[in-house]
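Project outcomes to date are best conveyed with an example. Our students and postdoctoral researchers have been running inverse folding experiments weekly, and each run begins with a structure described purely in C-alpha cells. The record below, which covers 469 residues, was selected by the lab manager from last quarter's runs and is presented without edits.
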C-alpha cells in the first residue's frame, strides 16, 4: 500500500507528536484508557478517562462520499480497526462506524478524537432522502473515496470537488485498491493533478489486509499517518494552510511528465492523430532510415518480444510487492514518489526462470532456484523456457517516477498486449529497438559487455535525472 506523503518523521511546525502513540509512554496511556488497546471500541462505548488525567475528548462527524463498490466499507473497517470483510456487499441504510484516536500535542496536552464515520448506501440514499440529509448534515470532515481500478469512481470524485463551494469543512481524498496495479485505471499523475488543483491531501491504501505480514504492518502505518494528518487539520486554526505546508515538504508532490525524446526522434503519442495511433498502422513520419515493423504473433521476433514483456510484467509486479517488505525490514520511509535507496539497490539482480509450469526465482546469495510459482491469468501463454534478469529495479522505478510515470502506467504502456514496434538500428551496432505502441518507452538490445558497463554508472545516471527533474 502507498500514501502520498512522507514518513512519520516530525516536520517543522507540526502540532502533534506523530510517533507518540507507538512510544512506551503512548502505549501505557492507551492501555490505561482501553481494555483492549485501540482495537475497535463501539460507537456508544467511552474510554475510561480518570478525572486526574485532564484529557479532552472531541467528537468528529466524518461524512464518507464515493461511488458504490469503490471500497468505502473496507476502508472504514481499516480506519476503525475492524476486520476487512472477505466479500463485498452494498451498504444498507446508514452505517456509522466509530473509533478513538489519541494525540499528544507538542504543547504537552493530550486530546482524544472520537471519529464517527457516516456512510450512506447508494440505494438507500436514493430511496430515503432523509438518510442522505442526516449523513451530510454539518460534517466536520468529508472523506472522498475512489478506487484505482474504477475510473468512474475517480471521475465522480472530480465532479463532486468541482461543484463544491464549501471551503471551511476539512476534506481528504483516499485512493483504494492501490495494490492491484495490473488493474489500475487511474494514474498517479492524474491523482497528483487533482491534489494540486483542489489543494487537498490524497492517501493511498490497500483494502484487504493479510495479518502478520509486512504489507499489513505498512498499511497500519499509512492509516496512522492519515489519522494524524486529520488530527493536525482539526487542531489547526486554518486547515488549508496546514495542507499547503504539507505540500511544501513534498507530502503530496507528484512529478509532471517530461518528454525524454529529442526533436529528431519519434513524436510523442499525444501529438499523433487517431489514425496514426492505430496499433495496426505503421507510423509515417518516423525520422529514421528504416520503417519500424509491428511485431505480432505472425512476426519472427514474436517469441522474443513475448518473453521480454512477460518477464518485465512479472519482475515489476514482484518488485512492487517486495517494496513494502524491504522498507519495513530496513525501517525506511515509504513515499509515493521515490523509493528510499540503499547501496545494495544499485547492484542487486533478481533472476527468474520461466517455463510453462510457472516461475522460479534464483536466490542471489546461494544461486539456488526457489519453489515454482504458478503464473496467473494476466500473463500471456508461455510456451518456451527462458531466463529473465531484473537489474536494480528500485533505481529504475525511481527514474521513471522522476519523469511522471507510475508503475501501473508503465505496465499498461508496455505489456497490455504482446505487441511492439521493431526497428533495426542503421548504425554499426546492429542493435534492435522496440517501441511501445504509444511510443512512451523504448527497449534497446545491447551486448553483454555493454550491459556490464551500463551497471557501473547507475548512481551517476540517477543523480543526473534528479538534477534534470
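After processing, the design step wrote out the following sequence:
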Amino acid at each position: 500500500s502507498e500514501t502520498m506523503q512522507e514518513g512519520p518523521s516530525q516536520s517543522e511546525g507540526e502540532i502533534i507528536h506523530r510517533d507518540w502513540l507507538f512510544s512506551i509512554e503512548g502505549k501505557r496511556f492507551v492501555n490505561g484508557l482501553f481494555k483492549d488497546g485501540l482495537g475497535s471500541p463501539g460507537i456508544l462505548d467511552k474510554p475510561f478517562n480518570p478525572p486526574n488525567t485532564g484529557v479532552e475528548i472531541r467528537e468528529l462527524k466524518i461524512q464518507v462520499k464515493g461511488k458504490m463498490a469503490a471500497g468505502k466499507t473496507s476502508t472504514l473497517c481499516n480506519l476503525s480497526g475492524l476486520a476487512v470483510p472477505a466479500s463485498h456487499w452494498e451498504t444498507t441504510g446508514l452505517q456509522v462506524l466509530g473509533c478513538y484516536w489519541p494525540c499528544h500535542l507538542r504543547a504537552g496536552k493530550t486530546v482524544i478524537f472520537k471519529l464517527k464515520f457516516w456512510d450512506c448506501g447508494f440505494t438507500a440514499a436514493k430511496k430515503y432522502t432523509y438518510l442522505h440529509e442526516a449523513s451530510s448534515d454539518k460534517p466536520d470532515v468529508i472523506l472522498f473515496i475512489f478506487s484505482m481500478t474504477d475510473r468512474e469512481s475517480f471521475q465522480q470524485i472530480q465532479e463532486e470537488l468541482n461543484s463544491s463551494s464549501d471551503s471551511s469543512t476539512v476534506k481528504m481524498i483516499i485512493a483504494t485498491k492501490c495494490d492491484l496495479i495490473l488493474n489500475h485505471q487511474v494514474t498517479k499523475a492524474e491523482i497528483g493533478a487533482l491534489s494540486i488543483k483542489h489543494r487537498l491531501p490524497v492517501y493511498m491504501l490497500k483494502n484487504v489486509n493479510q495479518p502478520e505480514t509486512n504489507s499489513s504492518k505498512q498499511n497500519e502505518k499509512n492509516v496512522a499517518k492519515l489519522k494524524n494528518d486529520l488530527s493536525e487539520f482539526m487542531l489547526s486554526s486554518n486547515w488549508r494552510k496546514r495542507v499547503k505546508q504539507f505540500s511544501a515538504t513534498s507530502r503530496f508532490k507528484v512529478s509532471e511528465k517530461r518528454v525524454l525524446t529529442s526533436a529528431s526522434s519519434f513524436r510523442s503519442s499525444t501529438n499523433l492523430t487517431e489514425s496514426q495511433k492505430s496499433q495496426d498502422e505503421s507510423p509515417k513520419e518516423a525520422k529514421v532510415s528504416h520503417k519500424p515493423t509491428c511485431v505480432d504473433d505472425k512476426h519472427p521476433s514474436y517469441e522474443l518480444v513475448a518473453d521480454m514483456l512477460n518477464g518485465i510484467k512479472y519482475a515489476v509486479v514482484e518488485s512492487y510487492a517486495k517494496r513494502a517488505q524491504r522498507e519495513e525490514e530496513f525501517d525506511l520511509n515509504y513515499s509515493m514518489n521515490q523509493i528510499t535507496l540503499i547501496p545494495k539497490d544499485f547492484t542487486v539482480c533478481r533472476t527468474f526462470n520461466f517455463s510453462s509450469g510457472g516461475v522460479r526465482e534464483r536466490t542471489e546469495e546461494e544461486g539456488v532456484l526457489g519453489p515454482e510459482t504458478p503464473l496467473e491469468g494476466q500473463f500471456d501463454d508461455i510456451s518456451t523456457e527462458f531466463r529473465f534478469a531484473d537489474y536494480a529495479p528500485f533505481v529504475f522505478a525511481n527514474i521513471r517516477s522522476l519523469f511522471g510515470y507510475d508503475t501501473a502506467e508503465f505496465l499498461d504502456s508496455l505489456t497490455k498486449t504482446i505487441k511492439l514496434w521493431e526497428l533495426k538500428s542503421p548504425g554499426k551496432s546492429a542493435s534492435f529497438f522496440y517501441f511501445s505502441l504509444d511510443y512512451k518507452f523504448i527497449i534497446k538490445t545491447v551486448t553483454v559487455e555493454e550491459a556490464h558497463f551500463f551497471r557501473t554508472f547507475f548512481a551517476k545516471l540517477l543523480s543526473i535525472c534528479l538534477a534534470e527533474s
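The chain has a mean pLDDT of 74. The longest strand covers residues 94-104. The training component of this project remains on track.
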